[in-house]
Design goal:
Blueprint lengths: L2 H16 L16 E2 L7 E2 L6 E5 L1 H6 L5 H4 L6 E2 L11 E2 L7 E5 L2 E2 L22 E8 L3 H4 L6 E7 L9 E9 L2 E9 L6 E12 L3 E9 L6 E26 L7 E16 L2 E7 L3 E2 L5 E7 L3 E18 L3 E19 L9 E5 L8 E5 L1 H4 L3 E22 L2 E16 H4 L10 E19 L2 E12 L3 E15 L2 E12 L3 H5 L1 E6 L2 E6 L7 E14 L2 E13 L2 E5 L7 E9 L2 E14 L4 E14 L12 E10 L6 E16 L9 E16 L4 E8 L5 E2 L4 E2 L2 E9 L1
Parallel strand pairs: 6-9, 17-21, 30-34
Antiparallel strand pairs: 1-2, 3-8, 4-5, 6-7, 8-9, 10-11, 10-43, 11-12, 12-14, 13-14, 14-15, 14-16, 15-19, 16-18, 19-20, 20-23, 21-22, 23-24, 24-25, 25-26, 26-27, 27-28, 28-31, 29-30, 31-32, 32-35, 33-34, 35-36, 36-37, 37-38, 38-39, 39-40, 40-43, 41-42
Length: 718
């Protein structure tokens, strides 16, 4: 019996003895009766959902003192949101890659970056938490309903909608902290006859975080110093603004028909300061000893500017009858990106030809150095991503405990930019445009044949203009032994079609190590997965928790490898390819106890075993396990306090530097962070919070854990 199976058995026995129940945000058994809409595209309680669903409400966000979507997700089970080197966040669900997670806003896809190492990396930071009503997370494949990209799971961010009241509501908030400061304003008109509207605006200033860079390189033969980096890097700091509005019209008829129009606008102006880099540079052609070599700056005051903006707009018509609940809508999403790099370095012009002597009979080695190409003084890129979607669905009530939902979707994805076009004959970047279309139809059946048994089955047929058709099924079962104990089982297929970047990229980009060229591969195959999970949940009195085991096999994984470059001045060239298969399995355990009406204690343990099946090697940039111990206080008073103290222990996080940046180092880190937040409410509609992450000031520079971070904020309802 292998180690994982033993652990699974022990976990199941342990959970049975303690009689726990799976809980979500507030760590209370009653949360199982809260409704969610993401797992099955229709409202159902967490208790009846076969999928591993977790819900974050506004109360949870306030209790955590959250000021960003990432901080609101800190205690979500088995999601890795560690910072990426390009100042975004990974979005790994159950050990799957970030590109295998589907991030939605109100059930809609967002236009955004689509390369394998940039998908979802910036998405969460472009959504302001003050506009969020709740967040629903589904762990496990969801392609049967959502199609491509939902292999690992879904994060559905549901924003605040027009309030169904007769009064106008306003709120104003400010916050400040180590990473940023922000101010926001929100307005909900309430019902004005048949009309209802809401508006939200946010202004954020991202602060620079100083990260010291110090590195030396040596000649492997002579052991002499050939270069070094020294200084500070400050990543993506500057200004952000966002504006969101929604207008709803109620027809006031028996079918409860409504039509809703929404619009969002976001822009950011950020820049990055890079540490200075020095290297040995030859200034004359000839024999190496006469080539006038000097250690000079090859990156000097190098600054990168990021100017991005996006718009989202859509219209939805919905209604219901005694037998049907229907909805049809269309939406449009666009992201425009502009990148500029300026470097003050001064380097020799033209090509420097250097001859390296060697021992006879081996001839001397001629070398060519084009420093203007190897370390460009300027670089720039532009990109436009677009999503155009038409979708509709209808839920039919077949019986008291039997619903059938069917629907369809058409989607066009467009990407135009300089990273697709390569270089022209003058070595200038050129822009190209590609697109693909997909259409799909799906059916889902929710049936409770007997009181103790719930069955969920779904199937989706999708046709992609690049890859043809794909069929993804799903089956879920919930069986209740009694009102306090249940077992859940899920089986599902998933897939992800290669993105436009993975197919057609021809990017030339300046990095600290030189010019990097990444090219796509039109022969890529879609990634596919087969997954199942089984969970036991229960409660006894004030004790609750869950034990689950999940297993996923992925085929045709997309990765990149280094190939020979035939472009002068390019130090590295990489191409995407399908590498084979991976196996990802693990355990999710949680147990909690409600000490009193005000105090709850909870512990979680998430174990991940992710391997490349061809080599048997562990997949990098994932923890082996993450454990938390949480203490929550809430006096449930309108003018009271709530607080959370939690410790998170990460065991053997396997850090692997990006291979497409030329690095191949691998290290494992184990560390813990102690965190605290407290929220205070007053009867006059004012609330304030203070949060401190990493109280013990732990630093792990490779993982961008920069020590103690604080945040403080206040909200006032007018």
């Amino acid at each position: 019996m292998n180690t994982l199976l033993k652990a699974s058995l022990c976990g199941a026995i342990f959970s049975t003895l303690l009689a726990p129940i799976y809980v979500t945000h507030a760590m209370e058994a009653s949360d199982n009766y809260m409704a969610v809409v993401t797992a099955s595209k229709q409202a159902e309680t967490i208790r009846n959902s076969s999928a591993a669903v977790q819900l974050i409400t506004q109360d949870d966000m306030k209790r955590l003192g959250a000021d960003t979507v990432e901080s609101a997700l800190q205690l979500v089970e088995n999601i890795n949101l560690s910072e990426a080197g390009m100042t975004g966040n990974q979005v790994m669900i159950r050990g799957m890659e970030s590109r295998h997670s589907l991030v939605l806003v109100n059930g809609r896809r967002l236009a955004g970056e689509d390369a394998s190492n940039t998908t979802n990396v910036y998405t969460l930071r472009r959504i302001n938490l003050d506009q969020v009503n709740r967040i629903e997370i589904v762990r496990g494949p969801s392609s049967a309903l959502y199609g491509s990209d939902a292999m690992g799971g879904i994060i559905n961010i549901i924003t605040k909608q027009p309030t169904d009241t007769t009064d106008m509501l306003q709120s104003l908030g400010v916050s400040s902290g180590t990473k940023h400061e922000q101010a926001y304003y929100a307005l909900s008109s309430g019902n004005q006859g048949r009309w209802n509207a809401s508006f939200n605006m946010n202004v954020t200033k991202e602060r620079p975080i100083n990260r010291h860079m110090s590195e030396k390189t040596f000649n492997t033969r002579t052991k002499q110093l050939t270069g070094y980096t020294e200084g500070y890097r400050r990543i993506m700091y500057g200004q952000k603004q966002s504006y969101n509005s929604s207008v709803m019209y109620d027809f006031k008829n028996p079918n409860l028909n409504t039509i809703k129009v929404d619009f969002s606008y976001f822009k950011e102006k950020l820049h990055t300061d890079n540490a200075d880099k020095y290297a040995t540079v030859f200034h004359k052609s000839g024999m190496v000893f006469a080539a006038d070599s000097r250690m000079v700056p090859v990156n000097l005051n190098k600054t990168e500017y990021f100017n991005n903006k996006s718009i989202q707009t859509g219209i939805t018509y919905s209604g219901r009858t005694n037998r049907n609940n229907y909805e049809i809508g269309t939406y449009y999403s666009q992201l425009d990106k502009s990148y500029l790099m300026i470097d003050d370095r001064t380097l020799p012009e033209g090509v420097i030809n250097v001859v390296m002597p060697s021992k006879p009979p081996k001839p001397p080695t001629p070398l060519k150095f084009d420093y203007q190409s190897l370390y460009p003084a300027t670089d720039n890129d532009t990109a436009t991503y677009k999503n155009i979607v038409l979708e509709g669905k209808d839920t039919m009530y077949v019986g008291d405990h039997h619903d059938v939902m069917f629907g369809g979707e058409y989607r066009r994805v467009i990407y135009e930019g300089t990273r697709l076009g390569g270089l022209d004959v003058h070595k200038m970047k050129q822009s190209k445009k590609f697109h693909y279309d997909s259409w799909a139809t799906f059916v889902e059946d929710l049936w409770r044949p007997i009181l103790k048994l719930s069955l969920t089955s779904a199937i989706r047929y999708e046709n992609n203009s690049q890859f043809g058709h794909n069929i993804t099924p799903k089956l879920g079962v919930v069986y209740e032994f009694d009102i306090h104990t249940r077992v859940k089982f899920n089986f599902g297929k998933g897939y992800k079609a290669p993105s436009i970047s993975e197919l057609y990229l021809n990017m030339f980009h300046t990095t600290p190590m030189g010019v990097l060229n990444i090219i796509g591969n039109p022969n890529l195959k879609p990634e596919t997965s087969t997954s199942f999970d089984i969970a036991l949940e229960a409660e006894r009195g004030k004790t609750f928790g869950k034990a689950s085991y999940y297993h996923t096999r992925v085929s045709n994984l997309i990765d990149s490898h280094r190939i020979q470059s035939d472009v002068p001045g390019v130090s590295q060239r990489h191409q995407y390819y399908n590498i084979g298969k991976a196996k990802i399995q693990g355990l999710e355990l949680s147990v909690g106890h409600k000490v009193s009406n005000r105090i709850t204690v909870k512990g979680t343990f998430n174990y991940i075993d992710a391997k490349d099946m061809a080599t048997g090697e562990r997949l990098g940039n994932r923890p082996r396990s993450v454990s938390t111990l949480q203490l929550m206080y809430d006096d449930h008073k309108s003018n009271g306090y709530s607080a959370v103290l939690w410790n998170s222990f990460t065991y053997k996080y396997g850090f692997e530097e990006a291979r497409n940046r030329g690095a191949n180092s691998y290290n494992e880190y184990s560390f813990n962070t102690l965190n605290f937040s407290v929220n205070k409410k007053w009867n006059n509609g004012i609330s304030a919070y203070v949060g401190i992450d990493n109280l013990l000031n732990r630093e792990v520079h490779d993982l961008y854990i920069d020590g103690r971070m604080y945040r403080i904020g206040m909200e006032m309802k007018l």
